[in-house]
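G., the chain you wanted modeled:
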Amino acid sequence: MGRMAGDSATLPVARRHAVRRLYDWTVGWAERPGGTWALFLIAVAESSVFPIPPDVLLIALCVGAPRAAFRFALVCAAGSVLGGVLGWTIGYGAWHLVKGLFIPWIFTQATFDQVRALYQGNAFLAILTAAFTPIPYKVFTVAAGVLDVGLATLVAASIVGRSGRFFLIAAVIYFFGARVRALIDRYFDLFTWGLLALGIAGFLAVRYLR
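Predicted structure as tokens:
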């Protein structure tokens, strides 16, 4: 269960450095043309394969243009839900082709089995919790397709969870500004440990609520 959140803090040093480089690349889009499109595409990719959550770019964009924070949140939520549908489609129609790529490189068999158990309880609540918390949402989207969870259930839970998460971030940036990004840049390792702790807490919440 300790690897459920998929955070870089649990990885070897070399892989943590690779994640840090991906993080820097992702945030760098905030200072380039096309940052909004990058946010949308990263949100799509993160819902199935990409390891860096779109939150980091969302934060950077919101810091640069606080008045547009809620527009950025909408773009991020739309991309993430669309990516969830893509993950579901991969699981539903192509799992026999891509299983060797996803397990163990993107998530573990144990994590997949945990999600399978959760889906035998309350699939909507499981997806909603994963969509809102740092639990690896991509595991739930792909597993939903593999396990034949209804697409409507996935979309409805994802809209509520992802919108709630990203609009909350936008609201925090709108009111507190650049201090949030400065703290993340300075304390990246602690930040990833925090995501791990929140991911485990969210996972436990799903287990006890099902």
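The radius of gyration is 16 Å.

Shout if anything looks off.
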